[in-house]
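Inputs:
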Amino acid sequence: MPTKPLPSDLEIARAAKLLPIEEVAARAGIDARFVEPYGRDVAKVQLEVIDELAERPAAKYVVITALTPTPLGEGKTTTAVGLAQGLEKLGKRSMLALRQPSLGPTFGVKGGAAGGGYSQVVPMERLNLHLTGDFHAITAAHDLLAAMIDNHLHHGNDLGIDPWSVSWRRVVDINDRALRNVIVGLGAKLDGPPRQTGFDITAASEVGVILALATDLIDLRARLGRIVIGYTFDGRPVTAEDLKAAGAMAVIMKEAIKPNMMQTTENSPALIHAGPFGNIATGNSSVIADRVGSKTSEYLLTEAGFGADMGAERFFNVKCRVSGLRPDAAVLVTTVRALKTHSGRYKVVAGKPLPEPMLAENADDVLAGADNLRKHIDIVRSFGVQPVVAINVFPTDFASEHEVIRQIAEQAGARCALTTHVVDGGDGAKELARVLVEACHDETDFRFTYDDGDTLEEKIRKVATGVYGADGIELSPQARKELAHFEELRYGHLPVVIAKTHLSISHDPLLRGAPTGWTLPVREVRLAAGAGYVYAICGEMRTMPGLGKHPAAERIDLDENGEVVGLF
Amino acid sequence: MPTKPLPSDLEIARAAKLLPIEEVAARAGIDARFVEPYGRDVAKVQLEVIDELAERPAAKYVVITALTPTPLGEGKTTTAVGLAQGLEKLGKRSMLALRQPSLGPTFGVKGGAAGGGYSQVVPMERLNLHLTGDFHAITAAHDLLAAMIDNHLHHGNDLGIDPWSVSWRRVVDINDRALRNVIVGLGAKLDGPPRQTGFDITAASEVGVILALATDLIDLRARLGRIVIGYTFDGRPVTAEDLKAAGAMAVIMKEAIKPNMMQTTENSPALIHAGPFGNIATGNSSVIADRVGSKTSEYLLTEAGFGADMGAERFFNVKCRVSGLRPDAAVLVTTVRALKTHSGRYKVVAGKPLPEPMLAENADDVLAGADNLRKHIDIVRSFGVQPVVAINVFPTDFASEHEVIRQIAEQAGARCALTTHVVDGGDGAKELARVLVEACHDETDFRFTYDDGDTLEEKIRKVATGVYGADGIELSPQARKELAHFEELRYGHLPVVIAKTHLSISHDPLLRGAPTGWTLPVREVRLAAGAGYVYAICGEMRTMPGLGKHPAAERIDLDENGEVVGLF
């Protein structure tokens, strides 16, 4: 492919002409009285706007997902941003609903998360650092509950909490490996009692998932109260309500519940809200942002973490179940490099460049990885939703390789379009936008993978077989016991989240393409009663990243003008 | 005293008619282009305004301090707020510079900290919860450094840091007794190495003191770099700069450096910024807020923690040394109940009502506590600053008791005025405002207690004898060794902070009034190289509060309209 020299993300972001954020909101039909500016270029949107706009027609609702990604990511965020801009170029009013990036990892390996090239959310410093403080509120609310648990144990343990059963850890929004396993409560009697516990990163907090799934402030308050932190000595669940912590937690979260409005490099509106982990949690932005977005656009685009087996499955089965909103289409972001990786012929490592031979023109490699894309198209179809394959073009691609992807997609009955939004902004995504508009006019027949009334075990099995294509599931004795316990405690009606690797449709990161003839092993099952789901652990789940030997933090600084350098 | 029924603080705050925050700023002469709204009713002020207004005359600069407080506090914040409003009633332009309250203690015993009655900073929910996130930024910057220390040890310890020497702990803005002493780094090799450490509350963070003492962003960056986290095996100090953490920390603090503008119940402007502990740190709001305030008012009022021996001493000797600003007067907030307590005839306990007999009319009790007030007047005088005694009137006071205080003050050569700002707002503080204006026209002869060139030991001795009235100091062998070490490392030029009880002018909380014939025992000495001082520990210093058996958090909640209840 011909390439044109592209300025750095930072240069493009700084060169972007931002509109006053009130004007961005006004264009989306949000009256200034619902807009609370938070610094220049960011605003919170008050939830009262939802009632105000209740009579408006709902937007077409589109989830941006992907095939199984390489460790480098396939550009879902840039595609979502580019597509929103592309829709605007066609005269359609778009709204983005994206997750807020976690602050901690910004100082680890990953740098910023704001899209890229001419398809970014700006200002990137605001997005990647504190934004309006929602993650800090999650941290404070989460850790207040933790403090109240240990304080309750200290002051005589009236509730009879079994300290060994306490599963509520603490959180910080920093990559801090040393906090994964700690003993707290050492010192003197007034500083205790001692107890082994640990810290996760804030994105793994159940409070953050509650923010993502709450439908309004009353629902947020109720969900916080339902959080189960452990059990009494006689086996009864202990909730945040029992500890009288939920009210204070809701007060801490009072502002965080309002979604944050930003804009793209081409001034398309974006709602940035919540950012729960994609592995153990839902990996989607908030229900509330979607409720606002649905009434303030013609096309609401929301991104779901990892591949369609991960974020999109949870988006459909968990988030749409809670919100009542029904999707019209799913965009499957696809890259030449991902399909080449799924051929099984190359090894791609995060933070390292692609192997040189992968950059040669090789349509056969792409074809060899086709099963993965076909399977993701089928996954989207299993929900009765229209798939649109977006080929996210990289400068190292060849037209012959794109053509193979197009054939795979069309043979599988999916629409397909190239997109060059990173280099060309919204203009580069116009074709994709046209195809998406077309897809959104098709009939949909949305359906969940399982019913509320299915047992938890049935739900896990239906996702494993009906979505992933496993032959079945295998429960460890512990998992079996936990499932029985949760059913007995009347949590059986909850939906499920399967915590597994995102690097394969199976639980095994080494199984490429569309694995068949395998069984999903469930090691343990955990309860997120406040968020409102049960999650099955099928592999090592990392909930607190570490820093590398030379983390990004070492390069991040202010220059002599006080501008941020090294963040991107 | 006759009393009139007073609505609750919350009712008064909610009934207050707030002006648009841009208008509050405009009245102070701050152009809209320097004002960044953060939600309704709060804004950050850009530091560029300082250069813009460089030609303006400096305001009269007034510190609000107190005699030795009872555990209930004597109303310094309400007096500062009331006095600002009183000055406005006289047609003077006032500016308040107050500390941001810490979020954690709001959920402990103390409830909100926003003044009271008709002298409050509003909206109190914003002030007492996240405000604009500055404390969260302090927490994140502080804990990023902590993570980078343990990460450095994990990745081979190239700098040769002696793990046992690491004094940099972590912080959270939650009262969490169980975090005072912890072991981190347990688990597997990738989660370590194990190390004993602990957490303080965010208000105790050196990063927060740096925010309070930095003169601009460049200075903030430099101070962060100078933080000493411990020593190498061969005894060299290890700084945040050595760990390449200071740049990232400065980036995290980039917005926090801008002071926050709010208003009082009568629409006087207030800059709320930084909130370092009053025991081990400076207990004043920021130099930057004072730099802004000095150019945007005729009277800049700033509050200093605890009595004049504590916050005011540090305000004069540390903060004014750094800022170059020179005070014109000090308001000594005095109450009948405090002088009665200093008689030694009653025992006052935090969180409990006053002993019944203390409420009877008894001018003799007041007189018996006079020594404490006289000593604080002397302390203020020792800096060459005009003292103004403000009698903060309570409904349980008697006129005869006020008269005694007035006589004590005037005999000691101080001006004096009653103030009823809690009940009457600015009108109640007009007399005090008049007296203050008069005092500010007197000649001042400001002087420090010690010179930069004095040794650290001499500095401690000069504060102990020249300010507190001790006979001398007694250094423990450890303290002696540490002082020698800091001198050797060339930190001898730094000012000192004496970390001692605030309940006595001495180190012993049981010594009431104006103790004589005592020696200040210095147990150990610590270095805050980034903040830029050395602090001498003279007693148990609590840097992480706990929660009571029934903390305020249990009563704090949202009502059915989503309004906060129980916070005040």
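Chain B has a mean pLDDT of 95. Flag for discussion at group meeting.
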